[in-house]
Structure formats: C-alpha cells, structure tokens
Amino acid sequence: MSEKTKKLLDEMQRKRGYVYPPYELLAKTDPDFLEAYNKIWELIMPRKRIFPEKIKEIFYTVAIASRNPSDKNALKNHMRRALEMGATKEEMVEALQCAFLPNGALTMLYGMNTLMEVLKEKE
Questions:
Q1: Which of 21, 59, 109, 111 qualifies as a cystine partner to 65, CB 3.0-4.6 A?
Q2: Helix, strand, coil percentages in the chain from 3-state DSSP, rounded to 5
Q3: Nearest Cα to 113, choosing from 56, 72, 57?
Q4: Has domain 53-122 been given CATH number 1.20.1290.10?
C-alpha cells in the first residue's frame, strides 16, 4: 500500500471515525476508486449546503435501516456520528419511526434495538 493510500485511510478514519475493512481492501487493490469514492462522500456529508451533517447522519441511519437493517456496524457508526454531532435520542427515534411506513415494524424495531445499544455505550 502506498504512502498516499495510507494517508487517505488515516484521513477517512479521522473524518468519519471509522474505516470499514472493505475500504482497506479497496486501498490495496484499487486506490484510485477509493479516492474517488471518498471525494463523493466529502461532497455529500461534511459539505455545508442545506442540511447540517447531523441531519445527514440521521438520513444515513434511516437509509441503512431501510436498506439493510442487519448491517449493524454501519447503522451503529452513523448513529454514533449523528449523536456526536448533536442529534438527540428523540430525533433518532423519530427518524427510525419514519422507516416504519416503507419498511415495516421489524426494520424500525431492529433500528431501535441498535439505537439502544449505542445509547448504552454512551452511558
């Protein structure tokens, strides 16, 4: 892995608070793709436009809960970031309630269980 790629992974860890193992594989096998992927992330998440990053992390939480509620690592990472950026427990609960209509009660409940785990970690 090149020094440039290591620096990219370190920067991703610093800005996001996590680096998934697939990112490390991409860094080794296709660092140009990882760099492009990260640029897109930077255009969406930390960039100041209409929604603050806290709200974007709440969106991510609902999107992950809706798309694949069993992706607990991603769900927890985005919940943690939303809370670190000032999201309240009540905002997170309401966001997960929004996943109920398109995806059903089990998606909402799985998200709520995951949120309870994240909140317990913070105690």
A1: 111
A2: 80, 0, 20
A3: 72
A4: yes
